[in-house]
Amino acid sequence: MNQKELKELIDFLIEKDIAEFELERGDVKVRIKRAVNAHAPVASYAAPVASHPAATGYSAPPVVSVPAPAEPPAAPDEGLHVVKSPIVGTFYESPAPGSLPFVKPGDKVAAGQVLCIIEAMKLMNEIESDMAGEIIKRLVSNGQPVEYGQPLFAIRPSNK
Fold first, then answer.
1. How many CB atoms lie within 10 A of CB 32?
2. How confident is the prediction along the chain (160 residues), in pLDDT tens digits per residue?
3. What secondary structure letter does DSSP report for 100?
4. CA 105, CA 26: separation in Å to the nearest integer?
5. DSSP string for 28-92
6. 72-75 LR contacts (CB < 8 Å, sep 24+)
7. CA atoms lying within 13 Å on the CB side of residue 25
8. What is the edge-to-edge ordering of all strands in the sheet holding 81-84?
9. 105-111 contacts: CB < 8 A, separation 24 or more?
10. Rounded CA separation 70/17 (Å)
11. 32 has which bridge partners?
12. Is the pTM for the entire model greater than 0.70?
């Protein structure tokens, strides 16, 4: 696989929004993995390595690594309270598939009101608001894996 073919493959994967791809042809292995929010892929290319290039008449190209540019995290608006995930798991916006979400941007919430569910080890954990206010933004997608401490919602506190 030459550089032109590799570039065409990367462009195709970006166009189709494919995050990870691996191809093996004989001794040649190509693996392309890109960050979900970034537009630049991370690619690695490995070719057969001979014990001595003169032995086979083939010199293996070096492994190429193209790092994706780091995007700065979006700064939360001043005065917004961020509700973070207390556990690692899968985020769900509603109590059951097909039902209405617990909350959506623009909704007023009270302290203790359920905002979402995070499934961890087959247990459904209700995540409650720790303050009253208005939901400004949901920061994760339905069904998305979340990490401990990951921001879930931005809430504008109510003036009481």
1. 21
2. 677 777 787 788 777 778 777 878 777 777 777 765 544 445 555 544 444 444 445 444 444 544 544 444 444 567 899 999 999 999 999 999 889 999 999 999 999 999 999 999 889 999 999 999 999 999 999 999 999 999 999 999 987 5
3. P
4. 52
5. EEEEEEE-SS-SSEEEEEE----SSHHHHT--PPPPP--PPPPPPPPPPPTT-EEEE-SSSEEEE
6. none
7. 3
8. 81-84, 151-157, 133-138, 108-109
9. 105/135, 105/136, 105/137, 105/138, 106/134, 106/135, 107/134, 107/135, 108/132, 108/133, 108/134, 108/135, 108/158, 109/133, 109/134, 109/135, 109/155
10. 18
11. 21, 43
12. no
At 159, list the tokens.
Answer: 């003036």
End-to-end alpha-carbon separation of the chain, Å?
65
| Amino acid at position 44, single letter | S
Residue 10 in 3-state DSSP? helix
76: tokens are 């939360």
Please state the φ and ψ torsions of residue 43, each to the nearest 5 degrees.
Answer: -125, 145
In total, the chain counts a number of residues equal to: 160
Cα separation, 39 vs 67, in Å, equals: 11
At 16, the amino acid letter reads K
Residue 145: C-alpha distances to residues 80, 94, 141 (Å): 23, 15, 9
